[in-house]
Specification:
CBS-domain, 3-stranded mixed beta sheet, Diverse_CBS-Domain, alpha+beta, two-stranded antiparallel ribbon
Amino acid sequence: MTVAHILAEKGSSVVTVRPDDPLADAIHLLTKNGIGALVVMDGARTVVGIISERDIMHALAAHGATALDLPVSSQMTRKVVTCRRETTNDEVMRLMTEGRFRHMPVCESGKLVGIISIRDVIERQLAVLEAERQAMHDYISTA
């Protein structure tokens, strides 16, 4: 199974934020959309970072309420690990585990085409395992 399968099921819409937007705006977008991370895009629509709930919590712990006025760029992760549609779910899980992150933008030819989370990957893995279990059950039942 590949990232393309995940995007086909969940869709490819991505909520983004600009580097100069205040953290308060990022918090609003995360809450409004029920998501855990935002892709940070510059004016040229290039991925320049990613900001997660965890990043915001660290900012609040370090700066208190004044963190809400800080620009997203001050707290975002700048070195963003991305994948492509052809990337396998196993490779995504390996990258996320090694990098200790839970959200990964999907890019093709330098353009953002989606985002996946560890939850998306695990849900697809569980579906595959369930299908295999059912196939084994059916096979054994007919033997």
